[in-house]
């Protein structure tokens, strides 16, 4: 994760220098900071709304609340809001800008398919995302790609490609346009890589929190196996928040591992097997 962050930082510096040479730097940075701040500040509400999830109180989902209460005590962290989304897609996700302003959401599909210990493993994984402030990390990481995307779409037109400009003024903006495409692609790959590392980190934290990595592995295999049988329409409806999911909502055959937000299933299960062996030795 450190290596990916350093690479993103280097690209930030290079892209910033290019933008400053053309006068687009201040404009682009202000717009991106505003969008990134909104994405970070309202992340919990936006994610829940996009899934059609409803916040539930302890009397509405006592078993679910009891699991999260126990895990929060073990992890020594504030309890997030608890939400349920009515969909057959078996999954869960966590979102929120800080541990005190966060939410954990599970679908009715996952509650129907997993036993109590498997569901607890999934919830521990999601709480690890909250404790590790992964929404903040990924918001910062994706801001560069957002800036590059904006420049690619609008910067060239407003800066030098619009009508009424002299041909001599176009060259710097053509350079920015081309650099923006390269930067967007590189930052896209790096943020996907960072996302995969964060998932492995959450698996590890969740496994140690419950002390039952085998149950987390079992939940992973159940969810991944069932995902191929979920109707395509249901998967498309959850596409907006698939990056937050415990397991990817896309069939692995439909997306290359390089572009995936989640590590391969076998890599996650192997890590959990090593943790299980370590705990057994202890």
From TrEMBL:
One GO cellular component term noted in the UniProt record for this chain: plasma membrane
Main subcellular localisation: membrane
Top-level taxon of the source organism: Bacteria
GO BP annotation list: proteolysis
Cofactors demanded by this protein: Zn(2+)
UniProt EC number: 3.4.24.-
Coiled-coil regions, chain positions: none
Location in the cell: Cell membrane
Domain Peptidase M48: start-end pairs: 58-274
Cofactor note: Binds 1 zinc ion per subunit.
Membrane topology: Multi-pass membrane protein
Keywords: Cell membrane, Hydrolase, Membrane, Metal-binding, Metalloprotease, Protease, Transmembrane, Transmembrane helix, Zinc
Assigned protein family: Belongs to the peptidase M48B family.
HAMAP family cross-referenced by the UniProt entry: Pept_M48_protease_HtpX
NCBIfam families: PRK02391.1
Name assigned to this protein: Protease HtpX homolog
Native source species: Aeromicrobium marinum DSM 15272
């Amino acid at each position: 994760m450190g290596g990916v962050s350093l690479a993103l930082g280097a690209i930030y510096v290079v892209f910033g220098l290019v933008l400053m040479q053309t006068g687009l730097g201040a404009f682009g940075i202000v717009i991106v900071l505003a969008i990134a701040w909104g994405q970070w500040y309202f992340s919990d509400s936006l994610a829940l709304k996009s899934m059609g999830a409803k916040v539930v109180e302890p009397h509405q989902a006592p078993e679910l609340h009891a699991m999260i209460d126990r895990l929060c005590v073990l992890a020594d962290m504030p309890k997030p809001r608890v939400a349920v989304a009515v969909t057959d897609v078996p999954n869960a996700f966590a979102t929120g800008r800080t541990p005190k302003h966060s939410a954990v959401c599970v679908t009715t599909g996952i509650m129907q398919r997993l036993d109590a210990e498997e569901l607890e493993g999934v919830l521990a994984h999601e709480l690890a995302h909250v404790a590790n402030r992964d929404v903040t990390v990924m918001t910062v990481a994706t801001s560069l790609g957002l800036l590059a995307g904006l420049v690619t779409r609008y910067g060239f037109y407003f800066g030098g490609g619009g009508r009424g400009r002299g041909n001599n003024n176009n060259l710097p903006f053509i350079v920015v346009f081309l650099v923006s495409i390269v930067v967007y692609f590189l930052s896209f790959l790096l943020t996907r890589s960072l996302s995969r590392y964060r998932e492995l980190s959450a698996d590890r934290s969740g496994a140690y929190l419950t002390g039952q990595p085998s149950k987390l592995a079992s939940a992973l295999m159940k969810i991944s196996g069932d995902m191929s049988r979920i109707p395509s329409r249901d998967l498309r409806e959850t596409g907006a928040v698939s990056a937050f999911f415990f397991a990817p909502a896309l069939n692995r055959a439909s997306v290359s591992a390089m572009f995936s937000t989640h590590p391969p299933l076998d890599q996650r299960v192997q890590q959990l097997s090593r943790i299980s062996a370590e705990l057994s030795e202890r």
